[in-house]
Each structure stands twice: as C-alpha cells, then as structure tokens.
Amino acid sequence: AQKVTQAQTEISVVEKEDVTLDCVYETRDTTYYLFWYKQPPSGELVFLIRRNSFDEQNEISGRYSWNFQKSTSSFNFTITASQVVDSAVYFCALSEVEAAGNKLTFGGGTRVLVKP
Amino acid sequence: DTEVTQTPKHLVMGMTNKKSLKCEQHMGHRAMYWYKQKAKKPPELMFVYSYEKLSINESVPSRFSPECPNSSLLNLHLHALQPEDSALYLCASSQAPGTEAYNEQFFGPGTRLTVL
Lengths: 116, 116
Description:
- The complex is a heterodimer.
- By secondary structure, chain A is mainly β.
- In chain A, 0% of the residues lie in helices and 55% in strands.
- Chain A is built from no helices and twelve strands.
- In chain A, strands 2, 5, 6, 10, 11 and 12 form a six-stranded mixed sheet that branches.
- Chain A is globular, with a radius of gyration of 14 Å.
- Chain B has strands at residues 4-7, 10-13, 18-25, 31-37, 44-50, 53-57, 64-70, 73-79, 87-94, 106-107, 111-115.
- By secondary structure, chain B is mostly beta strands.
- Chain B is built from no helices and eleven strands.
- Chains A and B meet through strand 5, strand 6, strand 10 and strand 11 of A and strand 5, strand 9 and strand 10 of B.
C-alpha cells in the first residue's frame, strides 16, 4: 500500500523567511508520480508540480523549488522569501495508476502560516 | 477553459433530504473523480469515472450515488445522509487513461456540505 508522510503539521514563519516542507513516501511501484498541491482557505486544491519517478532533476519555479531524492524517498518543497499569500495548507501526494483508474494518496498536509 | 466548476458552493441539508452536487469540466478530460475532505484532513478518494463508466468505488456507503451523464458532467446524489457526512466535497478531472498527463488531476473549488 502507498503512503505519504508529511511530518510537519504546522509551520509558522515571518514574511521573507524561507520555509521547507518535508514529504516522505512509500510505494512498491517502479513508476509513480509525485505532486504538491496548495489549499488556501477558500478550499480549492491548486496544482503546483508533478514529478515522475524517473526524473530526479530538481525544479525551480519563481520562489518555489522542489528537491526529489529517490534514494531517501523524499520530495521536499521550499518556499523562498515567503509572503503572506503563501499561507495555506500544502499537500504532498503520490499517484498510483491502476488498471481501474488513477488514485491519489495524500499526505496529512502541512499548514503554513506566514506572518507579516 | 481550464477549470473545474462545482455547484452549489455551500449546501445545508437534513438527514431526510435528497440533494445533488454537480461538477463540470470543459477541458476534454475523460476521467473524473469525487473526493471527500473532512476538516483538517487530506482529501480521500470516493469514486473514479473513466470514459463515463464507474471504475473505482472506494467502499462508499450507498447513500452517496455518483452519476456521469456525459464526459463533461459528474453528479453526486445524496440521500439519507448522516451528520458525520458533513465535509468539503471536491471534484477533479484528468486526461484520458493511458496518457502521460493522466496523473495530473485538476480540482474544483468544492461544495461545503453540512448535514443537520
């Protein structure tokens, strides 16, 4: 069975500080996909990134960066120079593509609070 | 059009009521999903439709009845719900099974359901 663990339940930072969110996953599949989603107070899940298991390149998108390390089964997410608008719950997720369909397993989420 | 819409945004119903949640997408996606999210928890998969056919039912009670009348629409019919069914119900869609982008799910804003 697949499992995603986000050990940090809540992180509080002051604006302009960097914040790193940890994600550790377990799967028996050799091909899998990892995701990060942002959920602001409005409730909608906003897609941030998808990474497949064969692509270990780190990625940077503006103030966001992701570090994928297959050897440690981790897919960490860093927000650089945080802003108040970054306050949200962030979910790491693992995709399992079965014959029957595509299933996403979410971690428990990390609530990020950025104070001005 | 790159969004998933859900109606209504909020719904309050009694335990004897029958109501329906509606989800719509116009991205040409052929897989659609229902998730349930309780407060401070991650989303949990309920149903998956692939090519308008139910492909995954995660042992959801029969008081929840999904329907996919066409490739753009997904409904969730509710009957005789319990107060513990109060939650945010999220709809998502993704590309057709077998495509690289199949794993990437786009979420709607959700319907916040309260059962009295």
